[in-house]
Each structure stands twice: as C-alpha cells, then as structure tokens.
Amino acid sequence: MNKDQVKGRVEEAKGKVKEVVGKVLNDDELKAEGTVEKNVGKVKAGFGDLKEDIKKAVDD
Q1: What is the pLDDT of residues 29-43, one digit of tens each?
Q2: By C-alpha distance, which of 48, 37, 47, 49 is closest to 12?
C-alpha cells in the first residue's frame, strides 16, 4: 500500500464522519464539506491504486 492509498482512505473516512455529523446536526455546510472531502479521498485512493497496479505490472 502506498502513501496515496493511505492518505486517500484516511481523508475519505474523515469526510464520511463530517458528512454524518452534518446530517445529525442538520448542518448543510458541514455535510457538504464532508461530502467533498470524502470524494477527494476516493479520488486520491484511486490514484494510489492505479500507481500500485502500474508498479506491479512493471515489476512482472
């Protein structure tokens, strides 16, 4: 697992927490911030996955 995968998954988790807290507190701004952070984390993790796949393909 590379740094991008780890950072992306952590950011995704933090975003999900903010999103849920925003829903519970009825805070649309916090909910939206969490949604954005979650999606950015997914993209970052996906980029890390792609890097890992390329690394494995080159090593083979």
Answers
A1: 999 999 999 999 999
A2: 37
